[in-house]
Amino acid sequence: MGKMLFTGGTVVTADGSFTADVLVEDEKIVAIGMDLSADGAETVDASGKLIMPGFIDAHTHMSMPFGGTVTADDWATGTAAAAAGGTTTIIDFALQEEGGTLAGAVEAWTEKARGKALIDYGFHVAITDLRDDIKSELPSLAEKGVASVKIFMAYKGTPLYTEDDNLFEVLQLSKEAGVLVLVHAENGDVVAKLQEQALARGDTAPRFHALTRPPEVEAEATGRAIRLAEVAGVPILVVHVSCAPALQEIHRAHERGQTVYAETCPQYFALSYNDLAREGFEGAKYVCSPPLRHESNRPALWNGLKVGDLQIFGSDHCSFNYREQKEMGRDDFTLIPNGLPGAEERAMVLWTLGVREGRISENQFVAVLSTNQARIYGAYPEKGALVPGADADIVLWDPQLSTMVTVGNRHGNVDYTPYEGMTFEGGPASVYVRGNLVYRDGEIMGEYGSGRFIQRSFTATGLEAKV
Ligand code: URP
Ligand code: ZN
Ligand code: ZN
Question: 77: phi > 0 → left, psi -120 to 50 → alpha, else beta; which?
């Protein structure tokens, strides 16, 4: 690609907002300033738009086997949905197979992405089988640019579930290995017991998914994981924080001076337990873990984003169709595959409910969707920044855009949307990955397979990014 000059827009970064032009050449940002000119550059009129660094979604599950089925979005439809939401990079969870290696997980996920990814991508590896050879293999992940691993404290009875001794050992090994440890924090033993008791009582409807995973179960596991990281003397990242009691554990750790990163997701702001409790089997469309909570948790979550206890807003995009997939649990809520689509809606939810309502600033919006994610996950400043030398991943955000969500205008491959009928204000008008247009005005414009793997590392920060 040649040169492109974005003119007339307002640059919005994590640190501030200002009027400037942005010059792009050979997939990189080369200059930001007033009244730039460049011979032969294609001019992009950004007037009335906010020029933001492309959003990063470090929590997606594309083509992932889970809950007895495979997620509905593959790397083409999933990255199309993400691009339509302003996302230019995803970091997806590659699952280690039982008996398999970490390298095997990376290879399998590389194949899934090949020829399909519309945007750039990286992987976290979910460790499911911590053998001695896997402990020795851990440092080689960082050498491959896969600088993070995930441990599931939940999902007892599946290969994902991990006991404390293994979680602790991974934490101990993580610093030397140069990988950040992410945790899904719910007490898997207690959830399994509560589920068994609910089913024995004949409580099989979708809402029992939430009633068997109460906030305390998430808070207990969150506090436990944080304390184990404290003993191991390493940072930790808690994904998909859904409720006030779990957030309180994170806040307390911050008061002690511990490095704890935390993510929350759009479904905990736009949806609630009332959706899960919808008539008949409709609630299955809202089954995810941790579950949707009572709305009373929201003020604490908003405050967490505002004060920085929650630094990341990820989608946890884990889509299943209603027909034949969610329906697997018609007579038993524990068989409903857990997860919701949200990559496309993530930024619009945050803008509509957060920025427009005055709960967070436009700069905090950019921080939690992009810059903090790049910093915390070891991809900064190549990603997550509008600075000379960074990849030209750019969103032209239109604050005037209004989108009524319906399944027919979604870009993913799901037969429903949990956001059906909701109207979101503000949205991406056009999206560029390394200067290449991938999305404009509702249409996918990019080439499937053009997304590139991004090497992440913590050589600059030693696992401890300042955000
Ligand atoms: O319900 C969810 N969140 N499904 C995806 C897997 C996970 O726990 O992140
Ligand atoms: Zn999880
Ligand atoms: Zn997830």
Answer: alpha
Are 59 and 8 in the same domain? no
The CATH number given to whatever domain includes residue 299 is 3.20.20.140
Residue 324 lies in a domain: yes
**Are 278 and 212 part of one and the same domain?**
yes
Which atom of ligand 1 is found nearest the CA of 152? 8
429 is a domain residue: yes
Please indicate, yes or no, whether residues 267 and 325 belong to a single structural domain of this protein. Answer: yes
Closest residue by Cα to atom 8, ligand 1, is: 289
Residue 460: predicted pLDDT: 80
Give the three-state DSSP class for 381.
coil
Q: Could you list the residue range(s) of the whole structural domain that residue 12 is in?
A: 3-52+383-398+424-444
- Taking the centre of ligand 3 as the mean of its atom positions, its distance from the CA of residue 320, in whole angstroms, is 13
pLDDT at 1 over 90: no
Please give the C-alpha separations between residue 272 and each of 183, 249, 284, 291, 338, in angstroms, as whole numbers.
Answer: 23, 22, 13, 9, 15
Q: Strand locations in 185-325, DSSP E?
A: 236-238, 260-264, 312-313
Give me ligand 2 centre to Cα 95, in Å: 12
15 with 72, same domain: the answer is: no
State the CATH number of the domain containing residue 435: 2.30.40.10
- Closest-CA residue, ligand 1 atom 2, reads 339
Considering the domain boundaries, does residue 215 fall inside one? yes
Identify the bridge partners of residue 123 per DSSP, sorted by sequence position.
92
CB 72 within 8 A of CB 319: yes
Tell me the pLDDT tens digit for each residue of 169-189: 999 999 999 999 999 999 999
Report pLDDT digits (tens) over 381-392.
999 999 999 999
Question: Residue 238: nearest ligand to its CA?
Answer: 2
Q: 14 and 128 in one domain?
A: no
| Averaged pLDDT score across all residues of the chain | 98
Q: How far is the CA of 93 from the centre of ligand 2 (A)?
A: 10
- Is the pLDDT at 302 greater than 90, yes or no? yes
Distance 35 CA to ligand 1 centre (A): 46
Query: What confidence score (pLDDT) does residue 259 get?
Result: 98
From residue 156, alpha-carbon distances to 25, 159, 192, 443 in Å are 50, 8, 6, 41
Q: Which ligand is nearest to the CA of 184?
A: 2
Residues 258 and 375 in one domain: yes
Query: pLDDT above 70 covers what percent of the chain?
Result: 100
Q: Going by C-beta distance under 8 Å and a sequence separation of 6 or more, which residues neighbour residue 443?
A: none
In this structure, are 244 and 344 located in the same domain? yes
Q: Which two tokens stand for residue 154?
A: 């939940």
Let me know whether 387 and 327 are in one domain: no
Number of domains into which the chain is organized: 2
pLDDT of 37 reads: 87
Tokens of 157: 């009875």
Residue 404 maps to a domain: no
